[in-house]
Amino acid sequence: MLKLVFLSFLLLILTCNASVQDFCVADLMGPESPSGYTCKSPANVTATDFVFTGFRKAGNTTNIINAAVSPAFDAQFPGLNGLGVSIARLDLAPGGVIPMHTHPGASEVLLVVQGSIVTGFISSANQVYVKKLLKGDVMIFPQGLLHFQINGGGRTAVAFASFGSPNPGLQITDFALFGNKLSSALVEKTTFLDDAQVKKLKSVLGGSG
Amino acid sequence: MLKLVFLSFLLLILTCNASVQDFCVADLMGPESPSGYTCKSPANVTATDFVFTGFRKAGNTTNIINAAVSPAFDAQFPGLNGLGVSIARLDLAPGGVIPMHTHPGASEVLLVVQGSIVTGFISSANQVYVKKLLKGDVMIFPQGLLHFQINGGGRTAVAFASFGSPNPGLQITDFALFGNKLSSALVEKTTFLDDAQVKKLKSVLGGSG
Amino acid sequence: MLKLVFLSFLLLILTCNASVQDFCVADLMGPESPSGYTCKSPANVTATDFVFTGFRKAGNTTNIINAAVSPAFDAQFPGLNGLGVSIARLDLAPGGVIPMHTHPGASEVLLVVQGSIVTGFISSANQVYVKKLLKGDVMIFPQGLLHFQINGGGRTAVAFASFGSPNPGLQITDFALFGNKLSSALVEKTTFLDDAQVKKLKSVLGGSG
Amino acid sequence: MLKLVFLSFLLLILTCNASVQDFCVADLMGPESPSGYTCKSPANVTATDFVFTGFRKAGNTTNIINAAVSPAFDAQFPGLNGLGVSIARLDLAPGGVIPMHTHPGASEVLLVVQGSIVTGFISSANQVYVKKLLKGDVMIFPQGLLHFQINGGGRTAVAFASFGSPNPGLQITDFALFGNKLSSALVEKTTFLDDAQVKKLKSVLGGSG
Amino acid sequence: MLKLVFLSFLLLILTCNASVQDFCVADLMGPESPSGYTCKSPANVTATDFVFTGFRKAGNTTNIINAAVSPAFDAQFPGLNGLGVSIARLDLAPGGVIPMHTHPGASEVLLVVQGSIVTGFISSANQVYVKKLLKGDVMIFPQGLLHFQINGGGRTAVAFASFGSPNPGLQITDFALFGNKLSSALVEKTTFLDDAQVKKLKSVLGGSG
Amino acid sequence: MLKLVFLSFLLLILTCNASVQDFCVADLMGPESPSGYTCKSPANVTATDFVFTGFRKAGNTTNIINAAVSPAFDAQFPGLNGLGVSIARLDLAPGGVIPMHTHPGASEVLLVVQGSIVTGFISSANQVYVKKLLKGDVMIFPQGLLHFQINGGGRTAVAFASFGSPNPGLQITDFALFGNKLSSALVEKTTFLDDAQVKKLKSVLGGSG
């Protein structure tokens, strides 16, 4: 008897709660809003939506920078849509470099889990903050500031970068300047780089103009 | 000549920028506000302020839960004050458990870096989402919901939890119910637990009343 | 003449303003985003959309807890979608209890309008803050922390809880632990409760496993 | 033995948590920041800080508007500083009116607990939304829009207004226009009111110029 | 060779980035959410979406207030949807006035680019802050407070108002009181204005009731 | 009599409001928090605090870039502290350039008030959006993305940039790379620029290492 009464109360509460959304798993095919993707129906959400397994194996570092960035942002990991956090895996083979870049939308916490990494950022006041991180060390990079990572030793380094946004963005300075159709004249005028230097990097990075 | 002129422009800009604060390294002795600690003077900030080295060694798991939580929140890692992110290290010896808990102030991204972890959360709509995570796997826990971690295998597991706040808080349900002076009568009335059960756990967890 | 000129100016302004959205009455059938429901067309909005009349009569307290929670969150009161506030009515018959629970998404202001209520919360630092509130008294519960309400007298108590979010969520600890399919083994491992206790409450609250 | 080991773990956790701030009870004498007052030391906080008892008796309505507004904003109720909510009590004797006003900083949820109230707001698109609320009815007023309350019946009405900010502000149009030193010339030029009307209300409301 | 390898890395990164949304150009025909309009597909976005040319010519000031407000909010300038800023042009012929008004959703920075403007605001604490601005001067108006602008000289004045929201709203007090169907009785009761005054302005501004 | 009664009500309200803070004029000597500077006492605030007159004359463009940036951020214009907006003046003599830069903390609305400006930004997805703006034209630059301005004609151009933050920051790429003590080796490794190019610009911009 007691049980039945309680159950009816429970059902009552659950009916109310059925519409509560603690999360908003992204419907990647739906419309996007400034706050993120629209939500998959809660009825279709399963535990799998909240798990990302893409970091089980290392990123492919057989490229010119000997490094790889594997993001688990909302587009790759729909479960964190709207929840204010995301994460990415960095692999740096010996000699590997994540070139100078910014995340326009969030601050970053970097955690080294293998090897060592020389990393740093430059502030708006033009100060430089550089450190060598060992396994287990963490560094914070304030939102939107230029920073970089370099493998600091002779073995492959692995790190994870966490962000205070499901979609922090990533702007690699070299790609922004030399990897698109921004004209060489505009690049030179706005960076004071020499024409030969700009054209050389445009050629390497596939830029035109 | 060109150089001198440019330098004077640079100095002009730098003077303006000297007051720009991209970051706010916590002055732990200063007053706190709802947005976090007040800031250490930028003139006294060095690269060391942005690095946390407390995760180099494992947390001590020789305790009853065979597990340890080591936070790098703003109080432990002043450099991330005001920047919207933080991180904690979890060590779980074989049989180790991080008991049912919530973070009132932020969502969590959990990354397994060693061993395996069985983990899950319960939603407001009372749904259960449980998964076993292997090394490299990531799970997202929406803000404020009950969740737990259990070592999923025979060896020590290590994980890192990142949060979308420099101070997400941590409320372990058992400690909240049984580890303080909240009277047994109130605990029983509000949880429907039996008196013997409450008194037993209060005894184990050091609660009174 | 004056009037006509002014009117044309007015019309001009009104044309501009026609697209201004001070509010976003929820279209409960439309897609949801992390910031809430999409908006009903302003052309179809009337004063009725901004009024909720569901609190005119008391909630049904003839259940095992002798209490009822009636929410006016965005799903029940579409007019407050996106506006950062919501409200719920609490009815507690003599002996009534709102069991230990949290609101993952917002702080709560509780106002007693009839009878008296013993209420309190537990902080992340494991401190207990309990008070007996009389008619007219208000208590604040910080976001995401465990709290409870108990009828503090011999007559029915009525209170209203206001929240700093249109959808604060509600997680009742007992329902989360014992009212779903979370396995008894996992509950016991993560709460240190005895097997008999867990199974008893699972039976009462309709949980399985 | 078990108990001692657990206790030491508990103490470890508590040491970490000692710096966790779930709340920020206002130190009204300390410096204020854009996010609110600085915090009283948690060590000095008691349950009393989270309770406001100023609504136990009715506001004094023996004045020209036959009404009273009693706020429990952060300056009156320091416990809700930084927590994103606040509340105020409205008393309206028969014939009482809360004149046209706005809250610049938050949306409002109005709850009638005694009598009836005629209330409404005007949108940016110049639409009017007016309703008569009975006991138990709730109306939502979007942030910053002009609204008013009038006693809708023959007995005293009581209502509570909750806000999505600890400090929503209150700007009563009549006081802003006629109750200060804003010159009559400026008032007339910017409102198109007649000089006699402006001077009459300035006289009643204590304005000069 | 080097180039090819780099390019493949670049393509890899670009694939990831293809889903990154730094912006959310409004799809004015799509559903709206509390955070703004849903986004136009990035594939269809061009530089033109980020430019607004509607301020090239002056607003039409041949009306009773000898002034014009031309907004570039999200409805007029879809490119700034979700980006937290907007702008409007003000033209004030000699004698021109922007009547007393508020922006419910954002603070305003006013910049005078031609002529001079007498402007001011009234605070919640009922203080008046009035200044005459010359060309190049800037004034800040805190969110939601009553303010006005008057041409301060003998020639046409031009100013630009920037806002900390893509949709700050605009509520002109006179229009809200006298330019709609809000009944004269309600206006008089909530503003203490005389019946003749209310009816006169209702007549001028096209209000009924 | 009526007047006296009303006045006493007014005083009552004003007492309550005396602690309401619609604004928080920065006390530049006080402690800073993540939400901005602490507030000057409202009793000492005057209309002058809300006005900035530093844009009355043009910035000095007799430098190598033939351009000047004059910010009115919170450090220069304390009145906008905490209010979510700021503004800067740009002067570009013929041939003048504001070099490639980002604002880490806010989106920008650029308004051309004299001459013409060629300007553009590069997205995270590496797309380029460039336009020539004429007098009166406005362009929006999303938060944190690289952008630049070049005088587009034969006469001096003047523009104003408004931001959705009182302190958006400013990071000029060239200064960040070449104008400080970041070692040439690190610059080269993270940008792929040639050693000679880096050393040349370091020499021009005053960098060392």
TrEMBL record, chains A, B, C, D, E, F:
Keywords, in A-Z order: Apoplast, Disulfide bond, Manganese, Metal-binding, Secreted, Signal
Residue ranges of domain Cupin type-1 in the record: 53-199
Main location: secreted
GO cellular component: apoplast
Record-linked Gene3D superfamilies: Jelly Rolls
Protein name: Germin-like protein
Residue positions binding Mn(2+): H101, H103, E108, H147
Location in the cell: Secreted, Extracellular space, Apoplast
SUPFAM superfamilies from the UniProt entry: RmlC-like cupins
Disulfide bonds: C24-C39
Origin species: Penstemon smallii
GO molecular function annotations of the record: manganese ion binding
InterPro entries in the cross-refs: Cupin_1, Germin, Germin_Mn-BS, RmlC-like_jellyroll, RmlC_Cupin_sf
